[in-house]
Amino acid sequence: MPITVLVADDQAMVRDGIATLLDAAEDISVVAQAADGREAVSLAREHRPDVVVMDVRMPAMNGLAATREIVGEPGGGGPRVLMLTTFDLDEYVYEALGAGASGFLLKDAPVEDLRSAVRVVAEGEALLAPSVTRRLIADIAARRRERIHARPESVEVLTPREVDVLRQIARGLSNCEIAEELFLAEQTVKTHVGRILTKLSLRDRTQAVVFAYENGLV
User: Fold this and answer.
1) What is the CA 159 to chain-centroid distance, rounded?
2) pTM for the whole thing?
């Protein structure tokens, strides 16, 4: 089955272009397009796509508010959100990640990066985190820690091994790479990841990365 996608952007030419580029991939199917955040929320509920490719700045309801509504629906299991952004929106992107978006991509990224990002987000396996993204999150998290008190006591619910795994997740490593790094079986890593998310009440690996940076684990 192809990965189903909803594209949300207020600029028709950009929206159509993204949809065309994604539809050209054999394993991706664009099922709907939205011109603003409110329409994105409505269409996400109607079509239940695997991934919503969401612009940040849109009328009626911006991409951040729309993301919170889409990922915050009761019961979970809804679409994952890939934010499209530019560097002048760093703070907003970080807030979106904390609210439940599964990753973000710069608008000037190559076509194949866009398709790969959709696949990664759909799998829920790892944060879309090239080195520049990790540096961005680390920088913003450090500045946030200066304004708000982190709660390191929340880390105490994790075992030492789970903390080790969380640090590797924050580095952007996959389960396979973590297994090699820590000399563990891949299935064991998968079990640790599941327990980390449960203990910390996190939605996915993206929120785990944010948590790790905010609490000074990396």
Assistant:
1) 25
2) 0.71
